[in-house]
Design brief:
CATH architecture of the largest domain: 3-Layer(aba) Sandwich
Radius of gyration: 25 Å
Shape: globular
Number of helices: 15
CATH topology of the largest domain: Aldehyde Dehydrogenase, Chain A, domain 1
Strand order of the largest sheet: 15-16-17-14-13-19-20
CATH class of the largest domain: Alpha Beta
Largest sheet: 7 strands, mixed
CATH superfamily of the largest domain: Aldehyde Dehydrogenase, Chain A, domain 1
Helix content: 25-40%
Number of domains: 2
Amino acid sequence: MSQDVYEVNLFIDGSEVRPSTGEYQSRYDPGDNSRLIGRVADGSKDVGAAIDAARDAFDRNKGSWVSDHRLRARVLMKAAEIIRERAEELARMESLFAGKTIRTSRLGDIPRTIEMLEYYAGMADKVLGHSQILRTGDLSVLVRQPIGVVAAITPWNFPLLILARQTAPALAVGCTVVAKPASYTPATALELAKILAKAGAPAGVFNVVTGKGEAIGSQLLRSGKVDVVNFTGETSTGKWIMQNASASLKRVVLELGGKNPNIVFDDADLETAANGVTYGAFANNGESCAAGSRLLVHRDVKEKFVRMVAERISRIRVGYQLRDESDLGPLVSQSHMEKVLEYIGAAESEGLKIVAGGRRVYGGDFSKGNYVQPTLIDDTPQSSRLFKEEIFGPVLTVTEFGSEEEAVELANATVYGLAAGVWSRDSSKAVRVAERVKAGCVWINTYYTLPVEHPWGGFKESGLGRNNSVLAIEHYLEWKGLYLDAQPGKMKPYYRLVLGD
């Protein structure tokens, strides 16, 4: 096998293993569909082994993982150090499989992954409870304990970062993990498992099973040995996960789709807003649930502002994902590219005005990959599919508004509620609008700034629960009440309700 072709195996009970099926799926370069870049193990017959390893590691407190918070802190911090040392290698692997530009991985995903691990390493010894001396003199103690085995099902758009986001807080508090990375982008998940093992995680603490999503996901959901499922991905899949998890009342954390508005008022700093809007729409090729894919702009500045955004779009350089000069890479797969192009075709059939882009990129090496021009579509009515549905690609629609009330109404005219942006020099108005927009995160005079300290999750059909910040650890903890009887005497008055005098 060529050195350029990665063999992505499973990681179970502390070791990299081949799949028991002996089968692998081929993964081709999204920037050149003729080039094989990976052979991905079909782990559909190995899910049970991975779950058993995680369950055993937790139940037996293997290596003192559950009880030793200092060990957990050291492992997460050491893993962060190893990732820092291997940053360029991991960035290239991430971009190769996902199609995101190397600068996105190098300057965004990998550094943020390191920050994620370091942040939760610092949380490992800060899981605190409460206590109270009752009027009887008895002691009531509330402690928090790790819940058990966590299934982390992750998407292809931010493979390593989202895997760290879902699992670092779980590991910090003493849970064990079975990770199911997306079929398109599993390589860095295997590397993270190896890194954690090298950093000192006991065998079974972190396991990786690759393969087709439904075959593996259904086993994770059915298993009585799995306590929590954390899923990031499409809303339709999230609903399926929630329905299946309900059979055993598994705890579920869902970070799902978004159709996020960027609201630009006429008193905004238009230069700053144009930069933020363009970045928010086209960062990571637009393949992000957080993408600011709906531009809502006040009618008094709409024509000028659309020109400003179009000019910035004209500067975006589409190119192969591993080239330093590329601003926008290929989409993750040919089928996803066709889906995005179908939406652009729907805009044309609806008679909408395509101001910039709107085509697949052809010619030379581009013809071998999944390249789509960054696209700006003007005068998009609320009735349009493009206004309502998540496209998940480099497409930005424009809709004008005339009043604050109308802006809020348009912003909330969606089943989603993940993120939003508000642009205005009037801080009181900006905050007032931000409070009324139904979204889990609203940025004011910026967009897509998401440090680990800031909570992340959505309203409505954008999900349940929160990742990031101190809030994330709550999903992986159970409250337990301990009652210490401090009263003398072998016979309590209430015992006599049964035992008599």
